[in-house]
Amino acid sequence: MKTHALIVLLLLTCTLSAQEFLPIVTQYSKNDYFASNQNWSVGQAKDGILYFGNNQGLLQFDGSMWEVHKMPANKRVRSILVAPDQRIYVGSFEEFGYFERNETNQLKYTSLSALLKKYQMLNDEIWTILQWNNQIVFQSFTSYFVYENGQVKGYRCPFTFLFFNKAGNTILTHTDQYGLSRVDPVVNKIVPAMLERMKNPVIAVLPWDRNNLLLATSSDGLYLFDGKTCNRFKTEVDDELFKAQINRAICSPDGTILIGTILNGVTALDRNGRRLWTLNTGNILQNNTVLGMYCDQENNLWLALDKGITMVRLAGSIRYIQAFHPSIGSIYSLQQKGSDLYIGTNQGLYQAKLSDVLRSIHSLQLESNVKGQVWNLSEFDGQLFCGNNEQTFQVGSGKPILIGPVKGGMCIRKGSIYGKEVLVQGTYTSLCIYTKSKGNWQFSHTLENFLNPVRSLEIDYTGTIWASHLYEGMYAIRLSSDLKKVDKMQVYRSLDGKHLYPIHVLMLNSRVVFADKTGLYTFDDIRKEIIPYKEMNDQLGYFSHAYRICPFRNNLYWFIRDEEAALFRVDGNRASLVDVVPYSLFRNQSVDDYQNILPLSEKSCLFLLENGLALYSLPADMSKSNAVKLLFRSILTSDAESRDNVFLPINNLLKATTPYRRNNLTFSVFYPRYGQLSDVRFRYKLEGLDIVWSEPNSSSQKTYSYLHWGNYTFKAEARTKSGMLLSAASYDFTIEPPFYWSITARILYLILIGCLLYGLYRYILYLFHVKKEKIERAEEARRLHEIEQREQKIIALQNEKLESELTIKGKELAASTISLIKKNELLANIKEELTAQKKILGTVYPNKYYEKLIRILNENLSSEDDWAIFQTNFDMIHENFFRNLHTQYPELTSNDLRFCAYLRLNLSSKDIAHLMNISLKGVELARYRIRKKIGLPSSKSLTEFMIEFK
Questions:
Q1: How far apart are CA 520 and CA 534, in angstroms?
Q2: In terms of Cα–Cα distance, which of 296, 299, 315 is closest to 49?
Q3: Which residues pair with 23 in a beta bridge?
Q4: What are the pLDDT digits (tens) for 35-70?
Q5: Are strands 88-92 and 79-82 parallel, antiparallel or unpaired?
Q6: CA distance 298 to 314
């Protein structure tokens, strides 16, 4: 038990070592840039692209993409110089030359060592490249080479030397023979630079002032050199530098001395030799050996390491304690009293000392009497209140004093209610009132009829308390005149009437505003209702969705969102953006929903993080514009199978064109704002195809496939995550028509169309003539039809006349037949009577007279002449009845035909017997005989058959 108590006591009273505020650092490993671990040198071109000497070649980085450009024989690149003409000069083992961009922005290598005529390179490795006057000087440890006017000359020396350093119009180097020496490449001469030889080799020569240069030695620290003698430049880190072995040194644009070492990373010094910070594997670096250093256009320090690449944000307004060791937990609040710093975390209250130059925090220890969650630290009239999970304490003057008995003091604000100055504290359960007694604030009471957890509150000029519920809704509270209870309270569940988001109460320019991540709202005193704060929302734009506002100084305010914080200058209802700090810079160590930013001074404030702090310093020139531009890296065209890849010119005066077969285009852009790469988003639009912009994303490439021929304008924009426009670029190009729509083809099409139109014209004429002829034929047919109708009418009339005549003939034939029948009957009767009288008279009546009469009677009975006439008339009336009947039934005799004619006339058997001078039995026999010859069945009437026969 004693051991456990001792451990607890040690934990409660432990003091942490000093924690430095370090610049923001970004690390890149070979898994990021896909090349070798080892990097030797760094340079930057005018367009912002960075180049690194890597074991696998020239490594390029534009902020979005990495690319390796191979050297001949895949040699490593030791040294880099980006000249004003944008050539990238590189040095390797027995090889040096330059990369240069062509019109399509692609790098092409040209060897200069191949131009050597009277010099044989022997184990020469180029370690330094300088531009001296109009010459480019390549230096190895035993030789140097001068490139000028297209010619290369090599000079070998009898002794070795270290890195060439340009100092004004002089080149300085350390030689084995003379120590610090001057080099004159024009006359190939190396002479001593000082009388006394230095103890240690000079690694780097830095500009200092008009009369002095700053010399960095490998293991003997720094010296000031006036051109003749050297004097030690003492620093706070001399002992460390002696052991770490300096390998590189440069001065940043703001005068910071940056020293890269072999054993201890990089150290930054001010001009007085005081340490600003040290980066090594003990805090953040991935490797301690610095092989190359360079400050880019944004004053970011790039380190070429023995393992990886590191970027240090020198010019950034943020310095950062990434983590306290051991951990102090999530930081919710913080207050400064002189050099003392009070830090409220979820583990309790910590006390620390803040260095006078805001470089570090030291003497950090846990206050044993304030345990658990600390929500709020606020100072009023010299009294520092600590709102704790259990109670509220007064701290800052010795041992913490219990001042408020209510648990969970989350917020506390000062205001005037009914003319009386009070403090109102929001807690887990109620609102507490503090009043002054003998010049000090003392806990007075809690409100009798209010029982709700309050997260934030403000008191307006009318004395109304605006308090937000810990989870949902908000209260507008008016107290009774004795401040003992709630006299009137209005509850607001939602600000916009739609969403039930948590509501935060804030103070902006002495005006109470409300936020729920949908926008800012305020109270309209005239209409007595909550309304959108339109003027401010319009000014803030994307940041109107902030859920917390933290005052910085005067009219500067931080607007905090989940992913970033924006500093705005607010003048009345006008707001102008000053700076944006994305929380991604702190590796997302923000305390979710409780991000807080507290001022330290007029020019600095602290971001409260998860087990860390970020120190923000207000930029000296807040109006400085961003000079970084969005540029095109490449524009690639390809065919359908991606076999025919061709790059389009980048900086073309005329509009670029590409054949239709290469109508797949990939646009690559870059925005080399290395200090805020995580905050950059790209969006694209192809005018001629797209109607709206694409959604912002981190991809710097956009591909369009199978574009139709025509004119296009590709537009790209770089924006922050919050939507603020950083830069824009556009590119005009034309996709030529396919072969079937070329000028020649179109001329041919015009000819074909002309021919077609002419043919169509001829065809229309033909159709016109055809239609005309058709109309004429129709007219002729109509005329003929009318004639035919008239003729048919005539024929019909004639037929009617003929039918009438036939009818008459038929009637006459019938009358004639009847007359003939009657005549034959009469003659037959006379014959019978005569025969009867002959029998009676006998011989009385002479035979000759009798026979004569009989002969006369027989001759007049059915004479052949009468039959012939009858037959002719009958055929005329009955459409060749006899001919057709004889043709179909040739077995019929003339008597049969006569019998059939009588049947067609529908004569009775008796009449037929008289006409044919036969008996009735003979008539029946004749019927039977004819029926048999024509094969007429017994069921069919022979008379009907003859009447219907044609």
A1: 8
A2: 296
A3: 319
A4: 999 999 999 999 999 999 999 999 999 999 999 999
A5: antiparallel
A6: 9
Residue 340 has which token pair? 């003392």
Structure-block tokens of residue 907: 């004569």
Angle, helices 743-841 vs 864-877, to 10°: value is 150
List % helix, strand, coil for the chain (3-state, nearest 5). 25, 40, 35
Cα–Cα distance between 71 and 94 in angstroms, integer?
Answer: 12
What are 141's two structure tokens? 């440890």
Q: What is the pLDDT of residue 681?
A: 92
d(CA 106, CA 647): 8
Instruction: Give pTM, 2 decimals.
Output: 0.76
Nearest to residue 59, comparing CAs of 102, 101, 95, 88?
88
Phi, psi at residue 543, to the nearest 5°?
Answer: -85, 5
Burial class (CB in 10 A: 0-12, 13-18, 19+), 365: middle
Neighbour-count burial for 795-807, b at 16+ CB within 10 Å, e otherwise: eeeeeeeeeeebe
What is residue 3's predicted lDDT score, i.e. its pLDDT?
36
Q: How far apart are CA 294 and CA 39, in angstroms?
A: 13
Question: Is 921 exposed, middle or buried, given 0-12, 13-18 or 19+ CB atoms closer than 10 A?
Answer: exposed
The 3-state DSSP class for residue 592 equals coil
- The SS3 call for residue 680 is strand
Q: What is the pLDDT of residue 818?
A: 61
Tokens standing for residue 147:
């490139």
Supply the mean pLDDT for the chain: 88
Residue tagged 């020649």 (tokens): 744
Summarised one tens digit per residue, pLDDT across range 301-360 is 999 999 999 999 998 789 989 889 889 999 999 999 888 899 999 999 999 998 877 778
Q: Are 297 and 309 in contact (CB under 8 A)?
A: no
Q: Are the CB atoms for 38 and 29 separated by under 8 Å? A: no
Report the Cα 444 to chain-centroid distance in Å: 60
Sign of the CA dihedral running 233, 235, 239, 240: negative
Q: Where does residue 79 rank: exposed (0-12), middle (13-18), buried (19+ CB within 10 A)? A: buried
Homologous superfamily of 631-736:
Immunoglobulins (2.60.40.10)
CA distance 777 to 334: 110
CA angle 916, 918, 922 (to 5 degrees): 115
Q: What is the DSSP letter of 544?
A: G
β-strands 656-658, 725-735 pairing: parallel
Rounded Cα distance, 93 and 75, in Å: 7
What phi and psi, each to the nearest 5 degrees, are found at residue 578?
-105, -45
Is the domain spanning 865-950 CATH 1.10.10? The answer is yes
Q: What is the pLDDT of residues 716-766, one digit of tens each?
A: 999 988 788 899 999 999 999 988 888 888 889 899 999 999 999 999 999
Q: Which of 378, 383, 447 shows the shortest CA–CA distance to 409? A: 378
As a whole number of angstroms, the distance between CA 104 and CA 826 comes to 138
In three state form, how does the secondary structure of 570-590 look?
EECCEEEEEEEEEHHHHCCCE
What digits encode the pLDDT tens for the residues 647-682? 999 876 778 999 998 999 999 999 998 988 888 999
Matching fold, domains 631-736 and 865-950: no
DSSP assignment string, 63-112: SS-EEEEPPGGGPPP-EEEE-TTS-EEEEEBTEEEEEEE-TTS-EEEEES
For the chain, domain boundaries:
631-736, 775-861, 865-950
Question: Does residue 10 surpass a pLDDT of 70?
Answer: no
Structure tokens of 411?
A: 């917020």
Work out the number of other CB atoms within 10 angstroms of the CB of residue 512: 20
Query: Per the structure block, which two tokens stand in for 929?
Result: 């005989």
Q: Are strands 246-251 and 574-582 parallel, antiparallel or unpaired?
A: unpaired
Q: What residues contact residue 853 under an 8 Å CB cut-off, 6+ apart?
A: 834
Residue 209, number of CB atoms within 10 A of its CB: 10
**Which residue is it, tokens 């001022």?**
599
